[in-house]
């Protein structure tokens, strides 16, 4: 197995999203036709655009836990974005600054689609863990993969199903699983189920549907060891993204090397970022690692 010595910084453009500016621990962003301000603890520098541009935002979220949105103009609480052939519902929720998409992952969505197409295999089994609103699941399913989508929040799974309906993909084979990811993996191993692509996006802290507690630092290494038991004999891809930026991308690379020992392939690690069109002030929002055949 080969591990790259480079830490890559990946970002990609998306017509329905734009980072307009950042600074003073905030981001000025456009999602579709709406401009919003969200708190961003990593944006320590000074903004580049004048205050008048920031005043064009229609809503603000401080980014603090349990804070709500403040609206400066009357706008719908839900609206649609397009990513290729997919239609995605975004919404302002009462409990989070997140609106249903993580734009720094755009490059990953496109890369996963490319890997599936290049494989020329139409029987690929995909497992998407901590799968949120299902964009990666829909990308894979639209390419003919058999997808298993696992999340511990019923409301989030319903949101993902709505994205499936809006995208006209009601008939593609997606298995929706409401479960604690760690428990599900152990059951799949006992059932002798195997997957060719495994996508992991674990939170730093979370709770399962029955109150199970997940702490990244306590559970991730054992969780990946369990995941190894469900890797197929001829896997294509394992990809993991972490938002705990006190860790390093090299940390993910070492964990994936343990998980995929004996399979050969290559491991690439790096950071996922967003970048304004008219500035070089990229913001790194997560770290990633991916093993590829």
Summarize the topology.
Elements: E1 2-10, E2 17-23, E3 26-31, E4 34-39, H1 51-54, E5 59-61, E6 70-71, E7 78-83, E8 86-91, H2 106-119, E9 125-129, H3 135-142, E10 146-151, H4 154-166, E11 174-178, H5 181-190, E12 197-200, E13 205-207, E14 213-215, H6 216-228, E15 237-242, H7 249-259, E16 266-274, E17 283-292
Parallel strand pairs: 1-16, 4-5, 9-10, 9-12, 10-11, 12-15
Antiparallel strand pairs: 2-3, 3-4, 5-6, 7-8, 13-14, 15-17, 16-17
Helix pairs in contact: 2-3, 6-7
Sum up the overall morphology in one term. Answer: globular
So how many helices?
A: 7
- Proportion of beta-strand residues: 25-35%
Looking at the overall shape, the CATH architecture of the largest domain is 3-Layer(aba) Sandwich
Order of helices and strands: EEEEHEEEEHEHEHEHEEEHEHEE
Instruction: State the CATH class of the largest domain.
Output: Alpha Beta
- For this structure, the CATH topology of the largest domain is Rossmann fold
Radius of gyration: 19 Å
Major β-sheet annotation: 8 strands, mixed
User: Which quaternary structure do these chains form?
Assistant: single chain
Mean of pLDDT: 94
Number of domains: 2
């Amino acid at each position: 197995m080969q591990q790259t010595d480079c830490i890559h910084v990946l970002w990609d453009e998306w017509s329905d999203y734009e980072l307009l500016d950042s600074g003073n621990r905030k981001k000025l962003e456009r999602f579709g036709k709406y401009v919003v301000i969200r708190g961003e603890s990593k944006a320590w520098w000074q903004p580049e655009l004048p205050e008048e541009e920031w005043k064009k935002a229609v809503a603000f979220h401080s980014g603090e836990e349990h804070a709500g949105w403040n609206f400066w103009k009357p706008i719908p609480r839900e609206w649609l974005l397009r990513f290729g052939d997919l239609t995605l519902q975004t919404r302002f929720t009462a409990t989070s600054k997140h609106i249903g998409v993580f734009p720094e992952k755009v490059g990953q969505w496109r890369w996963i689609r490319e890997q599936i197409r290049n494989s020329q295999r139409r029987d690929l089994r995909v497992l998407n863990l901590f799968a949120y609103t299902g964009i990666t699941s829909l990308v894979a399913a639209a390419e003919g993969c058999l997808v298993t989508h696992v999340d511990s929040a019923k409301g989030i799974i319903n949101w993902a199903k709505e994205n499936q309906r809006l995208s006209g993909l009601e008939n593609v084979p997606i298995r929706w699983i409401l479960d604690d990811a760690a428990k599900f993996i152990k059951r799949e191993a006992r059932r002798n189920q195997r997957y060719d692509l495994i996508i992991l996006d674990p939170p730093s802290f979370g709770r399962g549907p029955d109150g199970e507690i997940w702490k990244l630092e306590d559970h991730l290494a054992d969780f990946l060891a369990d995941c190894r038991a469900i890797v197929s004999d001829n896997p294509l891809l394992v990809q993991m993204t972490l938002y705990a930026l006190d860790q390093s991308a090299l940390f993910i690379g070492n964990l994936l090397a343990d998980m995929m020992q004996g399979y050969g392939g290559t491991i690439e690690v790096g950071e996922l970022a967003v970048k304004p069109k008219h500035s070089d002030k990229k913001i790194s929002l997560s770290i990633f690692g991916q093993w590829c055949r």
